[in-house]
Write a structure and sequence with these properties.
The chain is α+β, with helices and mostly antiparallel strands. Helix 1 packs antiparallel against helix 2 and helix 6 packs parallel to helix 7. The chain is about 45% helix and about 10% strand. It starts with 9 loop residues before the first helix and ends with a helix. It has two domains: about 60 residues, no CATH class; about 80 residues, Glutaredoxin, CATH 3.40.30.
């Protein structure tokens, strides 16, 4: 590994604790391991993933491969609140583009971006699986159906006031 790596740093101590609690870590443990790490850090810092790979014997390429395959994992700092808008066919036909535009304008960020203050991350997804409620917006795992641009702005403005 890196000669400059400091495995005793406070940033890595939490990762090492998680690894110790899950030991021995096997191939089938990768997703729960990454989930726990992301819960602890808010995202998957590169140095944490590299240290975990070294400690578990799992290839770093495998850990990064899983982390980049699944949309639930983030390799860069992510906002406290995650807003997802569906861009699937049903949502698109029922005005989803207008909702996406309203969210983007209100938050001042585009799809895939996080606000500078790390309060909000905005994502569009291919389908949220709630087509009967289209267009759909999910805020911190809470689903809002029959969305309009005005309603999206109202929900997010309330969230901004509370954050």
């Amino acid at each position: 590994m890196n000669a400059g790596r400091d495995a005793g740093s406070p940033r890595l101590e939490l990762a090492l604790k998680i690894v110790a609690e899950m030991s021995p870590v096997k191939e089938g443990d990768i997703i729960p391991l990454l989930q726990r790490l992301q819960d602890a850090y808010g995202y998957l810092p590169r140095e944490v993933v590299l240290e975990v790979a070294a400690r578990t014997g799992l290839p770093a390429s495998r850990l990064f491969g899983v982390a980049t395959f699944y949309g639930q994992f983030y390799l860069a700092p992510h906002g406290k609140h995650t807003i997802r808008c569906c861009r699937g066919t049903a949502c698109h036909v029922r005005g989803g583009r207008k909702v996406i535009r309203a969210v983007s304008e209100l938050l001042g960020i585009r799809d895939g971006e996080t606000s500078e203050d790390l309060k909000f991350s905005f994502e569009t997804v291919a389908c949220l699986g709630a087509c009967a409620l289209s267009p759909v917006m999910v805020v911190d795992n809470r689903c809002y159906g029959k969305m309009t641009p005005q309603r999206a702005r109202q929900i997010l403005t309330g969230l901004m006031e509370r954050s």
